[in-house]
Amino acid sequence: MKTIETIREIVNNMSDTLFDTINNAENDYWDLDKRISRNGYRRLVYNLRKADLTVAEWWAWCED
To answer: Would you say 54 and 48 are in contact if contact means Cβ atoms under 8 Å apart?
Structure first.
C-alpha cells in the first residue's frame, strides 16, 4: 500500500474527468440496488487501476 502522501499526489495529478468518473462509480457502489452497486464497484476498481490505485488506497484518501 502506498503512503498517504503518494496517494494525495496521484489524486492531485489525476484528470478531472477520471476523478469525476471514480466519484460517480463510488456513488453507485453505495446504491442499495444490488446490480447498480456491483457494477459501480467494478467501474471503481477499473478506473482506479488506470490511476495506479486500489480501492483501499482510495478509501484511505477519502478518510484523510
So the answer is: yes
